[in-house]
UniProtKB/TrEMBL annotation:
This is Polyprotein. It comes from Peronospora matthiolae.
Length: 190
């Protein structure tokens, strides 16, 4: 580097920025969850590209600092048989180019309001988009069960069934047990 060029940030500086971004994404900013997930993967040895991505996320947040989270009460949110609980799952197939693992994402809603979200790297390499979506649906439903149990514990009356939205038809068929091809037998043993 030349005399006039800025010094490359230390790993500790990078980790501090990434930690702040992670806290913000987990508490208030669903929109940056996937990008923050990507930048956290190499926090032990960040590249110049990782540093640029972290700064880009921080710059995005700076431009959105007046954006607030608002939870409005609405009498139409409560149905006559209880509050609606639903979740949405998705997967980014082979999103990590270094190990080809997919990333699961999920959003959780109670009464039409987002109450939580997740973005997790899957433990195994998915062999297809269907498998990645199926695993994401499984992870999302496990998290949703926790939310439902919490709502029960605090006395919230809910509709008798919750809904998990999945956008992949092959994964939906697998979940329903309609796929008889046997192409996903290996998923059972994972």
């Amino acid at each position: 580097m030349g005399k006039g060029s800025p010094k490359r940030p230390t790993v500790q500086t990078f980790q501090s920025l990434v930690g702040s971004l992670l806290w913000i994404s987990r508490c208030t900013r669903l929109a940056i969850a996937f990008a923050v997930h990507r930048v956290t993967r190499r926090s032990h040895a960040p590249s110049e590209g990782d540093w640029r991505l972290a700064k880009k996320i921080a710059k995005y947040l700076k431009g959105k600092k007046k954006l607030n989270i608002m939870m409005k009460g609405d009498k139409n949110l409560m149905k006559k048989d209880g509050v609606v609980v639903e979740a949405f799952s998705d997967a980014a197939y082979a999103a990590d180019k270094s190990d080809r693992k997919s990333v699961s994402g999920g959003v959780f809603m109670v009464g039409g309001m987002i109450v939580g979200w997740m973005c997790k790297k899957q433990k195994y390499v998915a062999l297809s988009t269907m498998e990645a979506e199926y695993v994401a649906a499984s992870q999302t439903s496990a998290e949703m069960i926790g939310i439902v149990e919490l709502l029960k514990e605090i006395g919230v009356q809910m509709q008798s069934c919750t809904t998990l939205h999945v956008d992949n038809q092959a994964a939906i068929a697998q979940i329903k047990g309609e796929d008889t091809s046997g192409r996903a037998k290996h998923i059972d043993v994972r």
